[in-house]
Hints:
- The complex is a heterodimer.
- Chain A is an alpha+beta fold.
- Chain A folds into three domains: 3-49, Uridine Diphospho-n-acetylenolpyruvylglucosamine Reductase, domain 2 (2-Layer Sandwich); 59-169, Uridine Diphospho-n-acetylenolpyruvylglucosamine Reductase, domain 3 (2-Layer Sandwich); 174-277, Enolase-like, domain 1, CATH 3.30.390.50.
- Helix content of chain A is 32%, strand content 26%.
- In chain A, strand 2 (24-27), helix 2 (33-38) and strand 3 (46-49) form a beta-alpha-beta unit.
- In chain A, helix 10 (236-249) packs antiparallel against helix 11.
- The longest helix of chain A has 18 residues, at 260-277.
- Chain A is globular and about 60 Å long.
- Chain B has a seven-stranded mixed sheet with strand order 3-5-1-12-9-10-11, with helices on both faces.
- In chain B, a hairpin with a 6-residue loop joins strand 21 (594-605) and strand 22.
- Chain B is an alpha+beta fold.
- Chain B starts with 20 loop residues before the first helix and ends with a helix.
- The relative contact order of chain B is 0.13.
- The longest helix of chain B is centred in the C-terminal third of the chain and has 23 residues, at 517-539.
- Chain A binds chain B through residues 1, 35, 38-39, 99, 181, 183-189, 191, 256, 258-259, 261-262, 265-266, 269, and chain B through 120, 277, 279, 608-609, 611, 645, 648-649, 651, 653, 660-661, 663, 665-666, 668-671, 673-674, 726-728, 731-732, 735, 737, 739.
Amino acid sequence: MIRFVEPRDLQEACAVLADDEWGNKVISGGTALVLMMRQGLIAPSTLVNIGRLQGMDGISRDDARITIGARATHRAIATSPEVMQWIPALADACGRVGNVRVRNVGTLGGNLAEADYAADPPTVLVGLDAVCHVTGPHGARDLPVADLATGFYSTSLGPGEIITAVSVPIGEDRVSAYEKFVSRSSEDRPCVGVFATARYDGSSIEQLRVVVGAAVAVPRLCDDITGSVAGDALDDATIRNMAAAISDAIDPIEDARGSAWYRRKVTAVLVRRAVEGVSR
Amino acid sequence: MTTTVDRLPDVLGLSIPMPDAEERVVGTLRYTVDHSVEGMVHGRLVRSPYPHARIVDVDVSGALALDGVVRVLTGTDLERAVEIPNPYFGLTRRDQAPLAMGRARYVGDPVALVIAETPQSARDGAEAVMVDYDELPYVIDPMEALAAGAPQLHEEWLGNECGEWRLHRGDVDLAMSQASHVFEATYTSPMANAVPFEPHVAIAAWEDDFLEVWTATQWPSAVRGELAHMFDTDPGNVQIRVFPLGGGYGAKSQLKIEPMVAVAAKMVGRPVRLELERDEVFLTTGKHPAVMDIRTGVDEEGRFVAREIDLVYNGGAYAVMTPKAVAQGLLRSIGPYRFPNIRIRSRGVYTNTVPSGSFRGAMTNQAAFAYESHADEIAEGLGIDPFDLRERNLLQEGDVFASGQVMHDIHFQELLHDVAAVIGWGDETTPSPGKAVGKGIAVIVKTTPPGTRSEVRVEMRSDGDVLVHTNSVDMGQGVLGTLAQLTAHHLGVDIGKVRVQDPDSSTFDSMTAGSRTTFVADHAIGEACESIRRQMAELADPDDHPGPHTAVDYQEILLGAGITSLIGEGAYQSTPSDALNNPLDIKGEVADHWHQGAVAVEVAVDVETGKVEILRCHGAAWAGRVVNPVRARQQSEGSIIFGLGPALFEEVIVADGQVTNPNLSDYMIPSIVDVPIELTSSSLESPDRDAAIHGVGEMTIPAVAPAIANAISRATGARVRQMPMTAERVLRAIVGEPE
């Protein structure tokens, strides 16, 4: 029998979670958690439902950032005028998660906390230096999305910690693009996802960033390879060399969506397309 | 005597909605999964985690100690149960027990059944059952299973033999040696799951010696016969009730979980319900994996002069239908072409995997992928247009099939021309920037299942209602509506007065499968209605009611004669044939009639990723006469959508003997987004108003995968000989990087 707890506030939720790090799980949209339970991958003794807590699902903007509540659904993000205007690549990535039924209940916080490698939003958020706001039994802290996932389905969240919101910096002169590749049904999780973002000074690139997701255990930020590109014109040969270098540098996983060989091939293609997509 | 009367307009050819259309849409239609019986308990299976193991001991004490657990049954209980004289069942070989007795033969083989007051306590009980196994060597690959020294699944069937059939005609060796060119290739396809929305679900209840089973089955008559055998009772003591199925597609053919609930209900003395979880559906049945070698000799003009086929079907752990199905597999491997010389061997093999069973386009999809891919490879090798190659070799009216049967009602040329015209064969391809675009065609033939029978009882009542009793199952194809239309057509009554009853064992029907129901029902209903007309004519005063009768006439006659109802019975029985008497020499009449279909597609291939997009798809079925145009179209187009999955990405993956993707997140089926925007179909009809009505349930699906394979090849030059044609396989074929 599974205990179903509806906490009155966040503090209570954190406290219940902290009681039993492995047995007690937080549930919101449930699209990932219930699937894992049905497959017998996890068997929680207590579900802590944060679906009825006030707040945590809004999307707000100030001059420096857009803050998205962890309980905001993929669909809410994909259709938010603020997100569409200021972080179109994130709206795009969220709008291509699963299908509309999944997007309508699955939440951003859940997506991040699940730390499934085959996901879209984390790849974009890592590339944009997004930060998770986390609350736990010992207070609140900020955790860069890049430091959240530590491996397959594992995160650096401590016992009892819950992601409450995600902040994404805005305001720079940036062009971003997310390339999602599904190898099976159109509603599949990504086989490879590549995010590219370029910060411009006029027509010259100040910084180019590429993040490879879904092909690897955790999103791979490729600053080590793209760092040297700044200032250069992004000609065809440069882009191809960079794509090849990234494809070589990643440590691809093998699953039913594709072999390691295949994921390297597709990564090279998607990096090139994404970078071409952010070229002015 | 010919008389004309004031007849109602004929309903044949009208798109009359299914009688339960509204209930289906608003969600009030009752399925077996919605049914419950007073006092019932719930079952939950404990399944083997090993592909092959001796069952040393099953400790049920932990489960029995739990609240709500009523009983835990094991194979040992079945062995000892006097109530079950014949615990083994099977329609071709009785090699399967409701619970494994002594040995588990695949991962998922049921070894115990926990029966409890609630589904949850049954689940808890199943987790508490402790089974001690002694692992045995296992074999997954059918070719390895055939090799000497391979682990053996059944002592009675040495060499893992699960059916072997052969056919030969002419002198293949001589013709091959004299052929201008010989082409050879191997094509493979894996297991796929039909994924019916409604899982397998059944309830069994005994009252004294009378057994009643509610089950989501396509084969109620077969379930009835086999359960009667298990309990050594008269089939009259077994009643099978079937609600409309929430999808079947072959997955609910033969017997699946009915023996388990029937046995359990007998042993606990209460009604027992069992509903499979989705992962269990994957562990219950699937499409036969197949390996097909083809060698073809052709002359300078591209005419086929000889063919040799070696076909191996993986039957899985239990026979189900495989020993007979591989005979159909043989006949369905030939394709719609003339072969003066042909030699075929088709084998079924036991392996330690999920038992294979029917799957929409059964034993045809695998073969059609091979022979229609091969046809294009030959055309390409000879530099002949694939359309021309087919036109040259297609079977025509009066031709002799490989079995020696003279073929009639043959329309492959019309189908080829129809799909080629719609896809614009020979015209420019659709511009698709950055992608390689190509068109492909495929034509298929499917034999009708032999030795089947269908009975119909039509009851004409004096209140004007017409009740039709059949044992045909509605599984979304709208059979109740179709049979109503046929009855209204044959009797000349208002279709609003015709009610087709859900199956209830009062009539016999071999199966609702093989796209045979409309064809056979037309015969059986025609006969039943003719009987009613004859009886009416005897009752009627010839002055008042001359000749055939309108509905009003019928009522007046019955009332005038003081009779409340008249019953007309009809049956269809397939033509007896000895063609399959000798498995090693199939010869003669192998089909009552020929299912014929074709598909043309245009695809765009991303040559950098191998991803295939279906731009357009058109299917054609030979219908003879169309009963209901909308439903015929839904069958042909639904078949295409169903076929896209196994063609492009559906595959039940087995690793270390274990199905690794038994859920709908890891096993993907096509989404609506995968369906081509331009999806069309033709149901070709004869101008002859008495032409045979053909089934249209599976005429396009076998042609989908080869048409796509051929289109990919014409777009990119790359040939994929393995289903599914995943993006990775296509890319590997393009860049020449084998797996």
